[in-house]
Amino acid sequence: MTYPTIRPEITLDFANSRQLDPRITFSRSSSATYLNPDTGLITLASDHEARLEKEGLLIEASNSNVLQHNTQPDNSYYDLSTGLTKTANNAVSPDGSQTALLLTEDSSTGLHTWGKTTNVPVTNNVMSLFVKSNGATKVGFRQGGESYANTRFDLSTGTKTYGNGGIEAYPNGWYRIWQIRSGNGNKVLFHLLGDSNELSFQGDGTSGVWVWGFQKEPNIISRPTSLIVTAASGVTRAADVCTIEGDNISSWYNPSESTFVAKYTCAYGSAQAAIFGAGDGTGNNVISLRPRNTFAKSSGVNQFNVSLYAGATPPNVQDTIGFSLDSFGAYLVNTNASDSDITSVTMPVGINKLVIGKVENAFIYLNGYISRIAYYSRRLTNAELEAITL
Predict the structure, then answer these.
(1) CA angle 279, 244, 25 (to 5 degrees)
(2) Beta bridge partner(s), residue 25
(3) Which residues contact residue 161 at a Cβ distance below 8 angstroms, ignoring those fewer than 6 apart?
(4) DSSP code string of 316-350
(5) How many CB atoms lie within 10 A of CB 48?
């Protein structure tokens, strides 16, 4: 392969630099949390503070947590505790505070359940919780009236064993587990389960789990977003807005031919995820790089719309996409799918803004991480693009 003989005009290396390029304007009109790559702890970022994790820059749409006091699990808001003993402030939680609640099954036969007696209805939601084993390993969620835990997990193996949801490992033995509920989800019920995952069983009086960080949010991306800390009411986290515009883009963008290479993690598997959108502010001239479909418009006319994945949802994996275009055509290649060669392209005009992690003029966010974006001011050859992408 022949590597490019020119260097990128601009390189945004978020994963390695852990800082924003001075040409970037970043805002978010609320605080938000992230997993600090230096401490391994969930950390609060203040208003307008970018969140840089080991995977890169985290970009999320706005979303809400309707559960109150979620980092104070011993609060009376969580008034249901059946077949359990509770020990407050018993272990270090994922944010480093001594606020984790120990739930220990008693020796009764029946349910061993924690949550709320009053329903918290949210249609089409994701309910999540941080859990760490203290002897008990089989746990599950229930939001409806089922006679079984309709999403179940095994903390000894770190796996989901049944239902619609997922599990993710965090530092210090913690897991974040979640349930995706389609339709009406009312109840807020977390269960310790028997050896055969049954709801009703005789407890041993000693096994338990630590819990912290309960969250229930509208399901916009099929898994939980970053932890939204609440107190006496639900809280909405504002969207991340990350842009380069005006002279900060015209100084390097070539409207006649261009190549973009982006490394990202579509952490949430959104079918509508966007790595970036470059446009003129009207939506009529736009270049949008997305895992599901990359497209360009010129004067309101679609030039191409290419899907890199046959299914509706790209995989929850790190990937690299390379994309080059000029008036003769475009070439698109990535590490996890076949390439696409497009001929005859009318270049979009008036590009004056690059929106990172979002499609300009559309509610389409990456809800994941941008590790790196590199821009070349000419169309690389197909071989050059493959060499730096694959």
Answers:
(1) 135
(2) 243
(3) 152, 153, 154, 197
(4) SSEEEEEEEEETTEEEEEETTEEEEEEE--PPP--
(5) 15
Using DSSP's 3-state secondary structure scheme, residue 94 falls into: coil
All structural domains of the chain, each given as residue ranges with its CATH number in brackets, are: 10-62+239-389 (2.60.120.200), 64-235 (2.60.120)
Give how far the C-alpha of residue 97 lies from the chain's centroid of Cα atoms, to the nearest Å: 24
- Measured CA to CA, the distance from residue 68 to residue 135 in angstroms comes to 28
- Alpha-carbon distance of 149 to 140, in angstroms, equals 5
Per residue in 247-263, pLDDT (tens digit) is 999 999 999 998 888 88
pLDDT over threshold 90, residue 11: yes
Residue of 30, 135, 40 whose CA lies nearest to 93: 40
Q: Considering only CA atoms, which of 120, 47, 50, 108 is closest in space to residue 83?
A: 108
Query: Residues of the chain with pLDDT > 70: what percent?
Result: 92
Give the span between the Cα atoms of 246 and 352, in whole angstroms. 6
